[in-house]
Amino acid sequence: MPTSGDVVDLDLGTPEGREAGFRHPAVVVTAQRILDASPSVIHVVPLTSTIRGFHSEIVLAPDDANGLSVTSAAQCQHVRSVSPRRILQVRGNVGVAALAQIRETIAVLLDPP
User: Fold this and answer.
1) Helix (H, G, I), strand (E, B) or coil at 83
2) Which of 85, 73, 62, 71 is nearest to 27 (CA)?
3) What is the Cα–Cα distance from 71 to 16, expressed in whole angstroms?
4) CA atoms within 13 A on the CB side of 9
5) H-helix or E-strand containing 108?
6) CA 55 to CA 76: how far, in whole Å?
7) Whether residue 59 has pLDDT greater than 80
8) What SS3 state is found at 88?
9) Coil, strand or helix: which one is 47?
10) pLDDT tens for residues 14-58?
11) The CATH number of the domain where 24 resides is what?
């Protein structure tokens, strides 16, 4: 089971519309306490190397810790639920600060009370 903040490669299948698809990197955003319980579904935010400058994107520079090879944007507007079986490999981890930024952006998008 991955850990929160892991950068993973996923098989997302055939996309519909503008959603991410095929083999795609993503950041695991599910809370660690949930991951520790081996859930049947986890939450991820897809990554793209096409930086659009949207307020819903968090830009991540490549480094040894996250395993990215190019600057990428976490597309927080595309958060989705997937089976952990879709994980093909774990590249690295974005770290606490970047994970917090991603989760904060998701919270803004969802506008919880």
Assistant:
1) coil
2) 73
3) 25
4) 9
5) helix 96-110
6) 9
7) yes
8) strand
9) strand
10) 877 877 678 889 999 999 999 999 999 999 999 999 999 899 999
11) 2.30.30.110
